[in-house]
Amino acid sequence: MSWLSSVRTALAYVVPAKKDTPDTLWHKCKGCGTMVFTKEWEENLSVCPSCDHHGRIGPAERFAHLLDEGFIDILPAPRATEDPLKFRDSKRYADRLKAARTETGEQDAFLNARGTILGHKAVIGVQDFAFMGGSMGQAVGEAFVQGVETAIADQAPYIVFTASGGARMQEGILSLMQMPRSTVAIQMLHDAGLPYIVVLTDPTSGGVMAAYAMLGDIHIAEPRATLAFTGRRVIENTIREKLPDDFQTSEYYLEHGLIDMIVHRKDLRERLATVIGYLCASQKAA
């Protein structure tokens, strides 16, 4: 045995072994930097108990929080052409999709579910920022249309939670075509006499902001969400002016009349039920 091995063996008796601490035991708030027990973070709907920062959550958490227990039907993700342009930058687009699916467990960045919110029928579509930044491609467009068609079939309002960096560059013009496509789908909803409700979450930007994110009958936003079409720095460099500190936030949009209300996540379920009750008084589930 070498002298180094002898020292290591001796130290093993006098130095306590390092306890294994799960990486998921604590969550660091991105708003204030406070370390919060993961269990407390999740029980508080991914909202910081110290600064009220609203963390990003995915479709599963949204559906569980909003829809009545026992009345949740998650719709299968519609199929769309994958990698239509055979795109490649530093990595193949097909590989990026595979990695995102492995990480999130979802087929793409948009998922629908039908159910009831405090007894009111509703179809909910949720955009998942964890899947390639919630980018809008053909699969997202297909899912959005699926949500509209399901809402029309169920005679229920369509509620969409947006969270996106914009159009998916790997699909080029095919991604941008989802903007007019979603607009036509929303008109179908209106022709059926059904409301379209948008809940803007952090962040919502780019082509999504220029399309279905701002075409709702009612616009609700979570507190301090970043809402923008173009980046702040680009705008400042273009107009040669310093923008307000709260520019491109939910609070700024509310102050300037671009959205209808800001609702804390813990109050969202009740507020949505109230809005649906006003807009669809005759369509409460039996």
Give the SSE layout.
Blueprint (H helix, E strand, L loop, with lengths): L2 H12 L11 E3 L6 E3 H6 L15 H8 L5 E3 L18 H12 L5 E8 L2 E8 L10 H17 L3 E7 L7 H5 L1 H14 L4 E9 L1 H4 L8 E4 L10 H8 L10 H6 L5 E2 L2 H15 L7
Parallel strand pairs: 5-6, 6-7, 7-8, 8-9
Antiparallel strand pairs: 1-2, 3-4, 4-5
Helix pairs in contact: 5-7
Brief summary of the model shown:
With 286 residues, the protein is of the alpha/beta class. The chain is built from eleven helices and nine strands. It is globular and about 75 Å long.
Report on this model:
By secondary structure, the chain is an alpha/beta fold. The protein has two domains: 16-53, no CATH class; 57-279, 2-enoyl-CoA Hydratase, Chain A, domain 1 (Alpha-Beta Complex), CATH 3.90.226. The relative contact order is 0.11. A hairpin with a 2-residue loop joins strand 4 and strand 5. 37% of the residues lie in helices and 16% in strands. The strands form two sheets. A seven-stranded mixed β-sheet has the order 3-4-5-6-7-8-9, with helices on both faces. Helix 5 (138-154) packs parallel to helix 7 (178-191).
